Structure formats: structure tokens, C-alpha cells
Amino acid sequence: MTLDFSKPLYFLAPLAGLTDLPFRSVVKKFGVDVTVSEMISSNALAYGSIKTKKMLEKSSLETPYSIQIAGSNEDIIKRAVDIINARDDVDIIDLNCGCPVPKVVNNLQGSALLTDLKKMGKAIETIKKYSNKRYTSVKIRLGFAEKNHIEIAKVCQESGADFIAVHGRTRSGKFKTPVDYDAIAEIKNTLKIPVIANGDIDSKDKAKWVLKHTNCDGIMIGRAAVGAPWIFKQIKDDIDKVTPNLIKDVVIEHFEQMLNFYGDYGVILFRKHLHTYSKHGYKGASEFRDKINRESDPKIAKEIIEDFFKNNKLS
Ligand SMILES: Cc1cc2nc3c(=O)[nH]c(=O)nc-3n(C[C@H](O)[C@H](O)[C@H](O)COP(=O)(O)O)c2cc1C
Q1: 222 CA to centre of ligand 1 in angstroms
Q2: What is the pLDDT of residues 46-73, one digit of tens each?
Q3: What domains can be seen in the chain, in order of their start residue?
Q4: Pocket flag, ligand 1, residue 16 (CB < 6 Å)
Q5: Catalytic residue flag (residue 156)
Q6: Which of 97, 99, 156, 216 is catalytic?
Q7: Partners of 69 in beta bridges
Q8: Which residues does residue 167 pair with via DSSP β-bridges, in sequence order?
Q9: Is any atom of ligand 1 closer than 6 Å to the C-beta of 68?
Q10: What pLDDT digit, counting tens, does each position of 4-47 carry?
Q11: In the chain, which end has fewer C-beta atoms inside a 10 angstrom radius, N or C?
Q12: What share of the chain is helix, strand, coil (3-state, %, to 5)?
């Protein structure tokens, strides 16, 4: 499998707790090119956690598929890579250099690697050296407290990354400060390897604008795909609105995928997705959410969901 960077590539961003196998397989049907696992701790992988191993699984639709790991200890990273190497259904191993969460940062992982570029470089080199996958990639932010994006991006390239994805904020910017698309463009201008732009891309017009403004090789969308996995089709096929019927079918399919993957517990895990799916201007959405929050039986939950999305009109 090779990635064709001759035209823009569309990535689903990794979102811990959201972009699991059921969600990714739903998004895949709307034309996203590359899907990425949720962030997987290299420690948990190396020490053989069963829950973590389940996170490696992909749907048969997901090719090319990227597994994102977090880590900084070279030995642990090597052991995590060995485990991923045993799966022949993975095309990319991605290193997380963006996660701002204190639990991750305090272990010198995620965005903390941006404060120690030597360590970051070694982590990338370790993946590149031991991985048997076609691609090694890195997902970065623009810096930790301050921007030093060019320096960071160059270390990624020099350490053997085949491409990078850039969330256009620093770690201090968390998920709210304005995304600096000029800085993403500067990175694209400097590097020889492909660069994927990420951050606050939430419509087809914004997607077009970001591609033009940054000249990047693709875009990565996260939060805007939650509750609206069809955004990739809207962008690719230039569609303004989707029909209530399509939304209903997507919600039911997603729900069924959750049950297949998680068993009955999928009903509870699906609540957060229903909250976003029901935000498209439906009447009675808050009553629906109250009702579904109290239901854990799959059959009854399905009836409630079908009834809400079938008999509802978008306001
Ligand atoms: C709930 C949540 C979970 C996230 N989990 C991850 C993750 O596991 N790995 C990662 O690299 N980034 C993670 N991110 C960051 C996103 O991948 C992305 O860079 C960021 O949300 C900006 O893109 P967006 O505006 O399209 O969502 C997460 C973000 C959110 C909001």
C-alpha cells in the first residue's frame, strides 16, 4: 500500500474515546482516505494489556490504517513496535507529539516531547528502525509553551518521518486558541516530506481554504467529524447538506457497530455520539438525550433512536 500524495489526502484525526473501530468504519464509508487509531500507550502495549490490544483492531474497510503510539522510552517504543509488527493490516505507525493532557505530559510523552527534541528525534528513529510498516509519521503541535514549529518539523524530517500532521496550536493553546495556519504553511514550505494540516477544519469551505492557504498535502479532521461523519463526503463531492434519512441510517449503523464491538456496553458508550448526532436542529433533542441516558437495554435503545431520528424534522 502506498499513499498517493499527488492529490490532497483526507485523514480522520485520532480522538481518544471517540475514534474507535465502530466510528472509524462509519467514517470510512464517507470517503476518508486514512484513519488513525486512538492514541495507544506504548507502555500498555509493551506490558500486554488486553484492553490496549483490542484498540489495535481495525475494520476491514480501513486501508490505509495508522496506529498512533505515545511514548518516549526507546526500549518500550521498540517493544510496542514489535507488537504492531506482528499485525499485517497496519500501514503506518504514528508518534503522538501533541497530547496536552498532564498525565501524558508528566511522563515526558505527547506534547512534552516538543520540549526535548533530541528525545523526540530518538523516538522517531526507533520507530523507523524497527517498524516493518511502509510509513512512519509524527503528529505535532507548533511548540510547547512557545512556537518553535520549524525546528520541530525539521527534527521530524531528519529523524526519518515519512510525513507529518500538524495541529496548528502550541500545547498552551490546548484546543481553543485560534489555529495558526500561517505557521502550518511555513512548515510545508520548509520540509521535503508531505505535511497534513489539522485544527478547526469544520466545513467544506474551510477545508478548501486551508488546503489553498497552507499548500499542504492533505487535511486532518477530528471534532467536526463527530456527529457528522459525512463531512468527508461533503468536502470531496461538494455537497452542502445531508438528508435526515441519511443521518438516521448512519446513526443506526453506528449503533449496530458499537454493539458488535463492545457488546451491550456499547449502548452506554454510544450516548456521547447520540448527543452530537441529535444536535443537527432536531426538535425534542434534550428530551431524547434524557431518555437515552437512562436506557441500557440494546433493543429498547434502538427503538428510541429509530423513533427519534425517523419521525423528526430538522428545524
Ligand atoms: C477528545 C479529544 C481526544 C483527542 N485524542 C487525541 C489522540 O488520541 N491523539 C492525538 O494525536 N490527538 C488527539 N486529539 C487532538 C486531535 O487529533 C486534533 O489534533 C485536534 O482536536 C484538532 O483538530 P480538530 O479541530 O479537527 O478536532 C484529541 C482531541 C480531542 C478533542
Answers
A1: 6
A2: 998 888 999 999 999 999 999 999 999 9
A3: 9-237 (3.20.20.70), 244-311 (1.10.1200)
A4: yes
A5: no
A6: 99
A7: 40, 95
A8: 198
A9: yes
A10: 999 999 999 999 999 999 999 999 999 999 999 999 999 999 99
A11: C
A12: 50, 15, 40
